[in-house]
Amino acid sequence: MTKDVVALTKKMPDPLSVIAGLLSGGPDLLVGAEAEGALVRLHDEQGRPLLSVEAPLLVQVRGEAERLLGASEPEVPYWWTEARATTGVKEAEALAGTFVGRIATLVGGTAWPRGVATSIGVVNTEGMTAVPVPAAAQPAVDVLTDKVAVVIQDRPVVAMTSWLADTFRAAAEAELGLQIVTPAGTRLSPTVRGALPGWPSRWVVQDEKCGYYDGLSGAILQWANGLFVTLESPDATAEDPRTPIAETFAQGAADTGERQLAISFRCVHPADDRLVLGGAVESVWREVTGEPPAGWGTEEPANLPWSLRQLTDVAFERSPEPTWVVVVGSPERPGLATVRITRTTAGVEEDVTLAFGYGAAEEPPTEAAQKAAEALATRHDLQSMLVQVRRARRDLSVPPHFEGPGVPYAFVLGAEEVRTMPGDRARRTPLREKPRELGPRTRPALYYPFPGDPSDLSGWQDFERLMRHLKGS
Q1: Could you give the CA distance from residue 284 to residue 286 in angstroms, rounded to a whole number?
Q2: 127 neighbors 142 (Cβ within 8 angstroms)
């Protein structure tokens, strides 16, 4: 298993402190740089990698270390320096601990996990052995087969770090699945949950009772033919696989009273050099929380203060390639969104999935959904929008147990979609309540509320009836 370590420091690690950290294995180890200097590797005398170090990241957003590491953090801004030890080499784990310990000592800061920096002395590396190269040349990959890349993560929250983002891209380019293996206590960031493609990719959770299970479905797993697959029941048939479910997965479904307000929408903007991106996310954020997002980034931790101009500049620089970003809120009001910006024949599309977390004594402000939809329909070229209330964690992380689906609260159809729909189909629906018009009267969007208790799963029946009606089926 690879070992991730992080140094959190007020000052940027200078070259001398990094060199001192890299000398934790003595002067006989070799140093190499890759990715135009963004990644530094520590090698043994035979050139085999032992430790990979990312370039320090300046974090200017409060709460990211607490959200992703469960660690206390310095006042922003601070520097996040992450290192990863090579799989299966005990000395490499010691090197990682000593590296961050030296960085934290020389620059001033703390090392994560707590207690990892037990010594800043030279690690004895005599006689150690390591794999010739990392799997797929990716420091984050622990096992590589002809079917999947396997990543083993021992962190409180598996986040879309630069390591993992590179692994997602490499696996996709190689047409491989990605399987993330974690201990039972680990959770996923919504960014990782949303990025996991379909089978054979999956989240594999280690469990004392059954060995391994799928953290999203609960299916008990086994390793066979180069990947984790579902354990077959002896009573299974082609029509009914009767997949066994992990007891741990089912038992974790107790209702704590925590809720999430989940909003997903798409905006399609006319392509224009004056187009400013991110305004749709900010409008929804302000309607729901009363404040703009706290920060954003192209990976986690989100390290940049919220800025429409900077986000737009990044997207324009990467065009015509798509741009993916994560947007976060303040620690006082957990909020997280993923935004995918794509240049298409229709224009510039923003696909947004976001959620806000609420404790047992808090009520999700569902009434803000219509105001947010009004803002999107009036100013941000809304195509469609779905609002749900979910029984899920306030901190927005995804646990390895059943949480249940969200319940539709409202659906919004953009003005252009309403205009192009034949006849008055968009206004005459099978729902009990008529749609409400949003935006300009001459070209309105339509807001479809789903009446009833948000905890009542029958809301999905109303939603499915509406979708069939709008499609003309």
Answers
A1: 5
A2: no
What percentage of the chain reaches a pLDDT higher than 70? 85
What order of strands is seen across the sheet that includes strand 202-207?
A: 143-144, 148-152, 177-182, 202-207, 211-214, 220-224, 227-230
3-state SS assignment for residue 70 = coil
**Cα–Cα dist 79/59, whole Å:** 6
Beta bridge partners of 388: 262, 408
Omega cis (within 30) before 77: yes
Whole-structure pTM value? 0.90
- For residues 223 and 230, what is the distance between their CA atoms, to the nearest angstrom? 9
Q: What is the DSSP string of 274-300?
A: T---SHHHHHHHHHHHSS---EEESSS
Closest CA to 12 of 96, 81, 110, 82: 81
Task: Name the one residue in this structure whose structure tokens are 């993916």.
Answer: 324
What is residue 385's predicted lDDT score, i.e. its pLDDT?
Answer: 98
Residue 71, φ and ψ in degrees, nearest 5: -115, 150
What tokens were used for 64?
């990211």
List the chain residues with pLDDT less than 70: 1-2, 15-39, 41, 43-49, 87-90, 116-139, 253, 452-457
Q: % helix / strand / coil in the chain, to the nearest 5?
A: 25, 30, 45
pLDDT digit string (tens) for 75-112?
999 999 998 887 666 677 777 888 888 888 888 899 89
Are the C-beta atoms of 287 and 375 separated by less than 8 Å? yes
For residue 229, the SS3 value is strand
316: tokens are 């324009």
- The number of helix segments (H) and strand segments (E) in the chain equals 11, 26
Of 294, 296, 299, nearest in space to 55 by CA = 299
- H or E element at residue 338: strand 335-344
Q: Which helix (H) or strand (E) holds 42?
A: strand 39-43
Other C-beta atoms within 10 Å of 144: how many?
Answer: 19
Q: Where are the beta strands (DSSP E) in 183-226?
A: 187-188, 202-207, 211-214, 220-224
Whats the size of the chain, residue-wise?
473
How far apart are the C-alpha atoms of 150 and 98, rounded to whole Å? Answer: 26
